[in-house]
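Quick sanity check, Peroxiredoxin-5, mitochondrial:
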Amino acid sequence: MAAAVRRSYINILNSTNRTDFVKTHIRWYLKRGIPVPSVDLYVDTPNNKVNAHELFKGKRGVLFSVLGAFTPGCKTHMPEYLDNYDKFKAEGFDVIACVAVNDPYVVSAWAESLNTRNKILMLADPKGRVYQGN
């Protein structure tokens, strides 16, 4: 399982490193043991705000991001996380979440189309604040 996740992580890095957005906007990276930044993200609607730091506080979690919902590259990464959901849970991960730089309605529709409900928490970050680390 670790190899599959590592391979997926490398694929995400390889696919996103080719974009100007990542090269110019991501100035901060989460690493193991570093707290998730205190930024407001959204689940389904702008009225359902979740603080990323509070969501992961005291929990073991998997947080990954995509550049945008419904993009071809990002759509190919999600199945591997879904396929490994039970393994993540068996290894003691409490929260498995995906952040996308889109409005909450778009992320919600994407979650519905990928059938991620009750597995991966889909978080909207319309201002890209997670990427900025603040």
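Posting the structure with no commentary besides this: The longest helix spans residues 2-16.
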